[in-house]
TrEMBL record:
It comes from the Bacteria. It comes from Winogradskyella wandonensis. The lineage of its organism: Bacteria, Pseudomonadati, Bacteroidota, Flavobacteriia, Flavobacteriales. Residues 344-483 form the Thioredoxin domain. SUPFAM superfamilies: Thioredoxin-like. This is AhpC/TSA family protein.
Amino acid sequence: MITEKLHFRFLRFALLSVTLFSMVGCSDASKAKGSSTFFGGEIINPKGEDVILYNRRIKLSDTLKLDSNNRFSHKIENLEPGVYTFWHGGEIQFVILEPNDSVMIRLNTYEFDKSLVFTGNGAKKNNYLIKTFLNNEDKSRNLVKYSQNKAPEDFETYIDDRHEKELNEFEAFKEKNSISNFASSVIKANIDYHNYADKEIYPFAYFGENKMVHLKDLPEGFYDFRKNIDYNASHLSDIFAYNRYLFFHFDNLAVTDYYQNNTFHSKFNRHQLSYNKTKLNLVDSLVTDEIIKNNLLKYKTREFINHSKNQDEVNEIMASYLAKTTSEEDIKYLNGLIASLNNLQPGKGLPDLIVIDVEDKEYTIAEIVDKPTLIYFWSTNKKEHYKNSHYRVKELQTEFPKMGFMSININDNPDKFWKETINKYNFNLGNEYRFKNPKEALKTLAVNYLYKVIIVDNKANIVNPNVNIFSEDFETLLKDMIQKKELVLK
C-alpha cells in the first residue's frame, strides 16, 4: 500500500517544478572575462526542436535550434561566468560555464538526467556536478525511511558521516583535476546543502506534524551548521540543493516561532495563517538578494493559497506578501492563481477544457464524466511520479469500483512521447487523455504541482478541488464524502 512515505516525494517534485531560479558569476572566474565560450551538444530522441539556455540574473535567454542530426551549437562572447540552465522538452538541468570553456552535452530524453554526459574543455567539473545531483536524488528517495527509523542521535551521525565521505571524495577529485574556485564552490555547495536540508526535514518526518513541539528535544548542536548558511548566495540561486535547503529551513524556523506563541500541547498546523505569515517575515528579515527573496516569498505564498479555503486569510497572506516582494511578474501570477482557484470552488462546474484521447478525438471533460470521478495529472518527464500515481489509482479502483478515474497528461510536446509511455506501462487506454492546450489548462485548473487531484460528481461539478491520493487519510476522506452523499455512487 502506498502511504504517507510517498507523499513526502511530493515535496521533492514540488520543489523541482518551481526551481527555475536565476544564476550568477562570482570571484576568481570573473577575471577571465573577455574570451569566447562554446556550448553545444546532441539530443537523442528530442522532444522538441530547440534547447533553451538561460540565466535570469544577467537576463540571458538564447534559443538554440537542433539541426537535422539533433545537434546544436552556440558561441558566447564575453560570457559572465556562472551556473546556467538549459531546458529541453520540459526537462531542466544545469551547466557551469566559464570563459574559454567548450562544453558539449549528450543526453537521451528517455533518461534525461541519468544519460547526461559532458565532454570537452569544462566537462570534468560538470560531470562531477551531475554526479552529485544524481547522488542527492538517490539519497532523497530513502530520506523518509531513514528519518522515521533513526533516533535523532543516530540520524545526526548518519548524515554527518555521509557528508564527510562526500566531501572527502570531492577533495580526491580536485587533487587529480584542476577546476576553478568558482566551480569548486558550486559543487561543494551542492553537497553541503543537500545534507543540511536533510537535517531540516528530519523532524517533520520523525516526529510528525502533530508532535513538532519535540523539535526542542533534538541533540545540542544538531543545527550548528546553520552558522555557515549564506541566505544570499547569488551564485547558487538556481541550484536545486540550495533552494531545497532554504524551503525547509524557513519551514523549520517558523515552527520554533509557532511554539513560542502557542501552548505546548497545541496541535501544529502547517496551513495555519500565522505560521505561514511567520515564514514570509523570516524570509524578509534574513534574505536581501532580490531574486532569492522574491522566489521564496512567491512559493511560500503560493503554498498557502493552494491549500486555503478561507478568502479572508488569502487576502491577509497576500497583503503580507505584497509588502515584501518587488516582482510585478510574480504578483500577476499569484493574482491569476487566486482567480483560478476562486473558479474551482466546490459546487461549481469544472471549466470547459478540451482533452484528447488516444485515438485523437476531442472532448470536454464534462462530456467524458458520467459518474463521480477522480481526475489526476502526470508528466512524461516525471517517471517516478507517473508510475506511482497510476499504481495508486489501481489500488483505489479496487477499493472504489463505482468511482471513475481520469488520467490527464500535461505535456505540450509531440503526443508520441505520451503514447509511448502509456503503451509501455500498459496504462488503461480508456482512462488516458491529454490537454489540447496544456498551458491554458494548467493555469485554469491551478495545477502547479503534479500531486494535485480534483474530484467531481457525475455532472462534472467540483466536489473537492485539491486532494492528495498519497496522503495517509485519503481513503477515509473519500469514504466520508460518500457517506455524506457529496459523492453518489450508483
